[in-house]
Amino acid sequence: MSNPTIVQPPPALVRPVIDTHCHIDMQERGRDGSEPQPPDELIALAASVGVTKLVQIGCDVASARWSVEMARTRPDVIVGVALHPNEAPRLFESGGQQELDAAYEAIADLAGDPVVRAVGETGLDYFRTEGALREVQQASFRWHIELAKSVGKTLVIHDRDAHDDVIAVLTEQGAPDTVVFHCFSGDAAMARVCSEQGWYMSFAGVVTFKNNDSLREALAVVPDNLVLVETDSPYLTPVPHRGKPNGSYLMPLTVRCIAEVRGIDENAAATLLWDNAQRAFGEW
């Protein structure tokens, strides 16, 4: 690996796991201006530590198209397509409802491809979006919920600073059969609400952060059949590499944290996470 952003891989897992949410197309450039790692190199690096299958997420029309084309020739990769919650307001501001509708049409067309197993990431992100644009986000979220139901695919949710409204919209609109809260960021009370609904909760590298006891408390109460693991790479890099670009090859660090928090061994954790991912997205 020539990219200087690649850190020393952790020891390989004893059993394989699936990265249920990553962004291969967003791999950051090296500090020396080097090109992003080719997909096959990133996939191979992940496999070398036991992360043998990936869910690649496209967050706008261009990345969704790239993701579908990439996955068609790589059987270990499946795809989720959507307009990210921050993408819908951006399109609306730049070109109004007409531009947003054109993007919806493109995502709906891609969602029918066999390599696409999920509609997402969609949801609500109130960290940067305020005022009337939150209504645009909510309308986009509702549109994606209906798309997931119409194509019979898993709904992958992005929820940032919007827990109550995400659950309210899901409840009012009627959730699809399978829902995944990507990078779950709620507390134990929210985890119990999601558990009651049978919604999956996926944990990323932030669960390893020293000051995140509330997230670990949430992880501890998630039922065995609803817990997932992800990287959200190149973001949310686990300890001890926090601050550096993330990759699927670093996910063993998060898996081992999940095992510790839940009081099980690595083998049991990996088996649980693999089986849950295959149920959440379908076997491949």
Q: What's this model, at a glance?
A:
With 284 residues, the chain is of the alpha/beta class. 44% of the residues lie in helices and 16% in strands.
Give an overview of the whole structure:
This protein has 284 residues and is α/β, with parallel strands linked by helices. It has one domain: TIM Barrel (Alpha-Beta Barrel), CATH 3.20.20. The chain is 44% helix and 16% strand. It has nine helices and eight strands. Strands 1-2-3-4-5-6-7-8 form an eight-stranded parallel beta sheet. Helix 2 packs parallel to helix 3, helix 6 runs parallel beside helix 7 and helix 8 packs across helix 9. 51% of the residues are buried.
Low-confidence segments, ≥5 residues, pLDDT <50? 29-33
| CATH structural fold name | TIM Barrel
Number of H- or I-type helical stretches: 9
- What strand order characterises the main sheet? 1-2-3-4-5-6-7-8
Largest beta sheet, briefly? 8 strands, parallel
The CATH homologous superfamily is called Metal-dependent hydrolases
The CATH class, by name, is Alpha Beta
> Which term fits the overall shape?
globular
Helix content: 40-55%
Would you count the extended β strands for me?
8
How many domains, in number, for the residues? 1
- Average pLDDT, rounded to a whole number, is 95
